[in-house]
Amino acid sequence: MSNDSRHLSHLNSAGEAHMVDVGDKALTQRIAIASGRIHMQAETLNMIAEGTHAKGDVLAVARIAGIMAAKKTAELVPLCHPLALTHVSVELSPDHTNHWVSCQARTETRDQTGVEMEALTAVQIALLTIYDMCKAVDRGMQIDAVRLLEKSGGRSGHWTADGQP
């Protein structure tokens, strides 16, 4: 991978922020997978998993919020290119041993730039939705470990985070 700042930076030759020109890049299939988790009290996790929250199915609402957020990433992240996503999935998994809900998002497009920001945004908004729906019963929830796990497509090819298969 190149460290050429002319191609990897959102700074123009004058040092000003700008949207990177991807006009010369080829259209390729691009995929990104991101993950994160939200820690909570055991009672909060039980309420979510059992579907007894007064606000309804927390995981279903969080999943939809994550998908919607991925589609709106260019409106949320300055200088991010708007992309036509071909697929978004958001999976939420309660872990009763560790008292958390893990989230994994997969985003796909056939475009000139990657979908890493969309996957990361989907994870963060899904987890924030869980926080928002459950904050009245557990204000001490903590979101962490949000990171890119894998990306493929484009000039830089395939990349996998350390420790991933």
UniProtKB/TrEMBL annotation:
Q: Which residues form the active site?
A: D132
- What EC numbers are recorded for this enzyme? 4.6.1.17
Q: So, what pathway does this thing act in?
A: Cofactor biosynthesis; molybdopterin biosynthesis
Q: Keyword Glycoprotein, does the record have it?
A: no
| GO molecular-function term, one example from the UniProt record | cyclic pyranopterin monophosphate synthase activity
Q: Name one GO biological process term.
A: Mo-molybdopterin cofactor biosynthetic process
Q: What's the catalysed reaction?
A: (8S)-3',8-cyclo-7,8-dihydroguanosine 5'-triphosphate = cyclic pyranopterin phosphate + diphosphate
- Read off the NCBIfam families from this record: moaC, PRK09364.1
Q: Which family does it belong to?
A: Belongs to the MoaC family.
Q: Which PANTHER family does this chain map to?
A: MOLYBDOPTERIN COFACTOR SYNTHESIS PROTEIN A
Subunit structure and binding partners: Homohexamer; trimer of dimers.
Q: What does this protein do?
A: Catalyzes the conversion of (8S)-3',8-cyclo-7,8-dihydroguanosine 5'-triphosphate to cyclic pyranopterin monophosphate (cPMP).
| Annotated protein name in UniProt | Cyclic pyranopterin monophosphate synthase
Q: Which organism is it from?
A: Methylohalomonas lacus
